[in-house]
Target: Heavy metal translocating P-type ATPase
Amino acid sequence: SVPAAILSALSAAARGGVLFKGGAALEMLAAVETFAFDKTGTLTTGRATVTQVVALDGDEAGFLSRLAGIEAQSEHHIAGAIRRAAKARGITPAPVADTVNRPGKGIVGTDPTGEIWAGNPYLAAEMGADIGHPALAALDAGAQTLVYLGRGPQLLGAVTVADEARASAAPALAALRAGGVGRIVMMTGDRPPVALRIGAELGLRPEDTHAAMLPDDKVRAVAALADRGRLAFVGDGVNDAAALARADVGIAMGAAGSEVALQAADVALLSEDLERLAHAHRLSRRTARIIR
Ligand code: ADP
Ligand code: MG
Model:
């Protein structure tokens, strides 16, 4: 039978929007030495905004229409930002078919002009596109996320997307540290400058800020860290369900997260307030002391 202390901790956590799948997950959380966080949509708000647009053929509306058209097929936070930007300008997304997600990189599909793709520099490189176009040089400056649109090796343009750390992220990480968590790392598929900027805002050491990671890289990194001590992984489920499943404690940002993520996880956060997670962690430690 489950000790009363655990039952009461589980229900207290649930009242704060932190759902444990069972007492074992609560006990495991108390023993976690390292927390690994996904960036986009987890440590950041996921409510990103498009800040700059560069269309290489000059027709910005046509460019955004194609970009929004392909991003209409993606569930990534970045895709949402692009759709909102097009809508705000009164631009209708162009029809795009046969889309295939490229986890950690972007998306490919077909529009009336042929095969198109949208994604980060790693996808651009894979397509043989040269992202060194002079018109794009200014985009790199702000440590923001870059999204390129192209047709095969031909680059059609790019946008920058800005996303901010959640207000609750810094206090939550501080509370986890104060609560005995020895190491906190960030894992992201985004570019290093963006990762380092958000990491610095949150007080993470540069060596604990891992960028340019594909979903499989995240799983390998999670496995390597878990070999050295109990590990929790916190993600929103977009491209990180496997890492959630591999961690000793997988924690899914539940409200906006995907069904797959909730299945892979041991803990679901119904609120996006990361301080609720820190609170649940304190609760788990207190409970572990009581039942020991
Ligand atoms: P993270 O949550 O750390 O950003 P993801 O694996 O979800 O990790 O995404 C990694 C990167 O892949 C993003 O930063 C972005 O550059 C790129 N990406 C993923 N999906 C898309 C998309 N639909 N459109 C454009 N870029 C994308
Ligand atoms: Mg993410």
Q: What stands out?
A: The two ends are 15 Å apart (CA to CA). The chain has a mean pLDDT of 93.
